[in-house]
Amino acid sequence: MLKSEKLNDEPGAWIFRDVPRELMRRAKAGAALQGKSVRVLAIELMEAHLQELERKGILPKGK
Hints:
Blueprint: H1 3-9, H2 21-33, H3 38-55
């Protein structure tokens, strides 16, 4: 495996600042209602949004 392939397979870390408290509260509640973590909810929402952009041709299709 190439080093670049290995880096693409490893998860990364993001830190978000200045997230409105109300949004944080709603995200936590929404995730809990679905039995998910906020991390899983955020990943699912980002994935769905990016797929929609790809479907519309706004964003090139990813792997």
